[in-house]
Known about the structure:
This protein is mostly helical. The chain is built from 8 helices and 2 strands. The two termini are about 15 Å apart.
Amino acid sequence: MIREKYSDSINRAVAKYPYINKDGVRLTIHPGLVKAVIYQESRGNPDAKSHAGAYGLTQIMPQTARLLECDYNKLNNPELAIDCSVKFLAALLTYNKGDLIRSLSGYNGGTHSTASRPTTTEGLLAGRIYDHPETRGYVVSVLRWFEWFKMRE
């Protein structure tokens, strides 16, 4: 459902908001990543609202919506939610120099969460993810869904 239903909106948004990686190269977010975020955040439900106040298809928090100049009260509009989310992901990826793990950690745990309390365990996620069980699970799940969506494009 997510693959077909939101593809046009996703493609428009990723073309509109590129990011800059560690080498200074301007890149486009893979549409499969946006689909993975949508699936993880709301399972495709544009009216989803979390206990913390995140809203819409991509579960944007009120303060993030203000920062990105997105109308929080209209985030149940999939086009707006996708646009806002891709803008946020592009900003996070640029800030984190293309590090997808840090960026997904920031999407879930807060923009600077990895810098404030990074994991201390060894392995791929060490120092690159906010040290909170929900965020660790979120990052792993989005990465799995990203691979799933990429294989089907």
